[in-house]
Amino acid sequence: MVILKDKKMGPVIPQLLVIGCVLFSFVSNVYGGVTSSFIRSEWPSVDIPLDNEVFVVPNGYNAPEQVHITQGDYDGKAVIIIWVTPNEPGSNQVRYGKSEKQYEFTAEGTVKQYTFYNYTSGYIHQCLVNDLEYDTKYYYEIGEGASARSFWFQTPPAIDPNAAYKFGIIGDLGQTYNSLSTLEHYIESGAQTVLHVGDLSYADRYTYHDMGVRWDSYGRFVEKVQAYQPWIWTVGNHEIEYMPYMNEVVPFKQYLYRYPTPYAASESSSPLWYAVRRASAHIIVLSSYSPFVKYTPQYIWLEAELKKVDREETPWLIVIMHTPIYNSNSAHYMEGESMRAAFESWFVEYNVDVIFAGHVHAYERSYRISNIQYNITGGISYPVPDKFAPVYITVGDGGNQEGLASRFNDPQPDYSAFREASYGHSTLEIMNKTHALYHWNRNDDGKKVATDVFVLHNQYWNKSLRRRKLKKNYLHTVVQTPELNKI
After folding, report:
1. pLDDT in tens, 432-450
2. Which of 282, 286, 306, 392 could join 326 via S-S bond, C-beta 3.0 to 4.6 A?
3. Which residue among 125, 238, 322, 332 is the active-site one?
């Protein structure tokens, strides 16, 4: 079993210098976007068999399994710990402390169970551990007697505009061999928290009893990461699971039982949309498959939440959702248009730094563009460069069984900076209040390859740097590709 390495972030200045050298070593006047010509030698897009070791059930009677954690409050001083006991409810207690196997504190959780058609879940435990200290490693234990299991997690630094922090971004993961490659490469990244942009288990590609079984196997599959660091997740279309033929008509039922969120801490009325602050970032999570037009609860909540963002405290404003607003792939093309019409003007008004989405099983990054001038009686009806707009990044390339979305629209639109149909994951390493380093890492036939890299300038703290004329080449792909060699 692979376990996250226990190490803190090293010095970042040497890394920035190296990246800076690479940036300036490449052509500076790249005006067009890049469509990568890389052809992925794809592993079979089939789910890993249930008897594979990645789904192993832990030893011991009624041993806790499918352990995963998420942030439990608004500011990062709490975690929600979730686990499943298969045979009986057992203990709801979490024992935790700052030293390994020395648990000074306890917290009591709750347990629940659900049915889905003829599947009955295990006993799902949920426990809020709060009043934690910032930037501290905690060890925790769950379960009873010889079947007890122990893990650890690291709390983030205190809310501070210059707090450094590294996020991973994963979407549309599933449980195939390609998913395993993504997960193992992410573990090597040293990132501290995952932003998961939806479509988790792909259990809905099964029927009847097997749907619940595949939720269980997914929980065991990702435990080696999710038990040690929080994942902040949103829902995708594969979490809806509206199945009238099985008499299951409550959307998101299995997801909501298994993946709680701290929605009440941000005064949201639903666990499907919420916000958290972590280190120097304010993260807003939206639901692409819940009502979001004017006067709906999600619309009203987002309007209020954006007004609460304090860029003096959390300068980095990040939004995650499932369906991309800008996408030049033939798969799911224009599906995000209605949410763009509802929210894009706010994203520009509040200077959102970056928006991550999934859904399309490929990678794509945009320039800073907007289409907020469009209306049905006149105005610009296409995206144009906008220095106040977010960068839009699609990372629906985690590795699920549906395979890659390899058909991009031709020609590549002006708003698209880089796109490639490959599996991978991203990292966003916040350095301070003004700069962050972004990587998209391609799973190149089982090897991690940093393919798209750029320095992201903060929208709020870099206003003084915007006197230069905005050009579409303000972001650069820094890994040498055949396309760049031809320029």
Report:
1. 999 999 999 988 766 667 6
2. 392
3. 332
